[in-house]
Structures are given as C-alpha cells and as structure tokens.
Amino acid sequence: MTRFFSLVAVAFLGLQLIQVDRASAASNRIVAVGDIHSDYKQALAVLQMAKIINSKGDWIAGQDTFVQTGDNVDRGADTINVYKLLQKLRGQASAAGGAVINLLGNHEVMNLGGDLRYVTKEDTASFGGAAARKAAWDMQSGWIGKFVYNSFNITHIQNGHTLFSHADMSVEWAEKGIDQMNAISHKALKDKLFKEPIFKTYGPVWNRDLAKEEAGGSATCEVIENIKQILGVSRMISGHTAQSSGKVLTLCGNSYIGIDVGISAYYGAKSAALEIIENRDGTQTVSAIYPSGKVILS
C-alpha cells in the first residue's frame, strides 16, 4: 500500500515521521473516540456502539477511519488488552482499506517517561509486576513502548478539514504546522526529553485553555478561529478534558468539539463517539453518537 509522509519536516529534524495510510482518504466516514484510560470493557462497548468493531472485537468499519485521541493508559487495570486491541485494529483496518489514527496523550508520554503516578496496582499486577510493566513500555524493546513510539503522532489533520489532538491546540504550536509538531515530539521521545515544551502545560497533550474557555467565551472563539485559519481546517477535535455531563463539548458554532466524555469506569463509564461524514459537495456532517442514538451537531 502506498504510504506518504512529509520530507520537509524529516529533513528539518533528521527524523522519520510516522507514516499514515492513504486509505484514510478513500473513506467518507471518520469516527473519533476520546480517553479510554485502561478500560477495555468500555472501549469495546463504545467501539461497538460506533460500528467500528463487532461483538468479537474485530474491525467491521470497512474503509472508515477511526481516530483515537490518546490517553489509553492509567486509572484502570486493562492497559494490556486496550493496546492489544488498538494494535489489532490497525492491522485489520489497513487490510480492509480503512485506517486507525492513534494520537499521543499526556498519559502515554508519562508512562514512556516513567511517570507512573496514575498507574493502578491492578494494572501493574496484570503485567506480572513493576519490572515487567516497565519493560513493556521501553521504546526500544517493549511491545507497548515500540507501538506507541512508532505508531502515535501528537496531532493529525484528516483530509484537510478536521484537526485532531489529545489536548487543546494553541496559536503558537499551530504556527509550527502539523509536520513540525509531530517531528518535534518524536525527537523528544527519541532523546527521552519528556519535559520538552511540547509535552508541558501549554503543549497539545496538556493544554485545557479552550475547553475551559480560560480567556472568556468570545476571546476563546477568536483563538479557535485563528488556529483554524492557520491550519486551514474547519474544526478542532480534542480529548483530555473530561465532561461530567457525559456529552461532547461544542464551542463556537462547533468549531471546537471536546470528546472526552469520561468513557472509563474511573470517570463514570459514559459512552460517546464523534462521527464525521464527508459529503460529496465537500462539506461534512458532524454527529455525536450516544447509546440513545445519534445527534447531528452540524
């Protein structure tokens, strides 16, 4: 299958970026799911609800694209099963002409860097102990560490219209462009620099300013519009900031959508996914999917 990546950013930082399947461009349906936090049972439930997998956990979405916006680890006990599921779905989706896009969350970065403050005792035990868990997260030799390092980017634009990141984008980071952000994050991971600015409070794995409207409603919308113009997108999708309502957060005429609804049992086991249908006229229909049905947002 033909693959592509930006040579400009590679030359700039001497890195090879994660390659993204062109098959994602062939699909007219994109489904995005937020923070899973080591809850395998809830991951299965949400992905079945969104018609990404069947009851056996296998890909049934054909040429669709599934975007998971990071934070698959911590707070729960099923890290192994969650990452095995994501690995399996990447292969099955590719074989069907679809794609799975995985993004780095702050909790992936924390685990890669040995910050285990949110790891549960049950999760550690599932690996066979702390040493075995640490080995699994090693980026050079561990199966989870290698998977995350080789397959997760820090941000993604789908077919030119929708920006995805784990946490909120800022103008400063948007001005660097998608390829450069991904290259910077992977160089930092490679060099084991887990406290680089891109991984800190105002980087795209931690920032909550937009979701919390820290600058006020109208000023937040101005920032969102500015980012959209810089990156040439119609909307921004983020996880990271859990919504106690269990519903997706929409701001500024659906220009910003927050999809962390608290899927894991730790946050109340709420279920939601975001669906984007690409229409023939170049527009997109955006809906929230809940157990009660689909709600069209725009």
TrEMBL record:
Keyword list, A-Z: Signal
Superkingdom per UniProt: Eukaryota
Residues annotated as domain Calcineurin-like phosphoesterase: 29-242
Signal peptide: 1-25
Entries under SUPFAM superfamilies matching the protein: Metallo-dependent phosphatases
Cited InterPro entries: Calcineurin-like_PHP, Metallo-depent_PP-like
Keyword Secreted included in the entry's annotation: no
Name of the protein in question: Calcineurin-like phosphoesterase domain-containing protein
Originating organism: Linnemannia gamsii
Taxon lineage: Eukaryota, Fungi, Fungi incertae sedis, Mucoromycota, Mortierellomycotina
